[in-house]
């Protein structure tokens, strides 16, 4: 549950975008997204579609530095007054991104904002960027968020990888995730083997898959554990269970970030 493979990620970019579009097409695009309160649903859609186009341009041009947004064709997309056009723009952007990533393959050299300078990073990142913002859209629309277990598990894996990278890169908040003798256990109750152990050390944290007693445990359905871990669902939600030192889980959630 650590890598779905390049082709699967390319497929998932399109699949997750299609599922996002299904939420948006009949929704009120002017409503505020509770989990991203600076955005309306329409702005969230344009954020996702713009990210797809930006990464597509980055990979297609084999960029060696960050590509300015104003150099990305059709980056902003249509406005909320044209929902059908916005839907088509999202579809087109996801398809173009997936096609460009497939053509490049996983090992193409390209700029990223992490140590790994390969196109594989972007295939995985855009998959999970779309998954999490699909959760945001579902919350705003008041519908259930469902996600394939393999995709959900890898979304958690990738977030742990990102936070670990942020800590190594000197991110101020991620740097505080240290202190030997403490640990967090994530346990999906509906997917066998979907468990994680985060262990704090004096120099930072490490993580691995495993079932062990920890300082605090977060238990619940995988989709809900994912949403809590990404701060899309509060840790005191009745849909999950927190056992042990809840303050340690809060400590993690407020500092597990980057940028």
How would you describe this structure to a colleague?
This protein is α+β, with helices and mostly antiparallel strands. It has helices at 6-24, 41-60, 83-104, 119-141, 149-168, 222-229, 246-255, and strands at 32-33, 36-40, 183-188, 195-201, 204-208, 216-220, 241-244. It has a five-stranded mixed beta sheet. Strands 1-2 form a two-stranded antiparallel ribbon. A hairpin with a 6-residue loop joins strand 3 (183-188) and strand 4. Helix 2 packs parallel to helix 3. The longest helix has 23 residues, at 119-141. The chain is globular and about 50 Å long. The chain starts with 5 loop residues before the first helix and ends with a helix. The model has no long low-confidence stretch (mean pLDDT 96).
Order of helix and strand elements from N to C terminus: HEEHHHHEEEEHEH
The 3D shape can be described as globular
Cross-sheet strand order for the largest sheet = 5-4-3-6-7
Our Rg estimate from Cα atoms comes to 18 Å
Beta strand count? 7
Rounded average pLDDT: 96
* Main sheet record: 5 strands, mixed
The helix fraction, in percent, is 40-55%
Low-pLDDT sequence parts = none
Strand content: 5-15%
What is the CA-CA span between the terminal residues? 26 Å
Class by helix and strand content? alpha+beta
Give a topology summary.
Elements: H1 6-24, E1 32-33, E2 36-40, H2 41-60, H3 83-104, H4 119-141, H5 149-168, E3 183-188, E4 195-201, E5 204-208, E6 216-220, H6 222-229, E7 241-244, H7 246-255
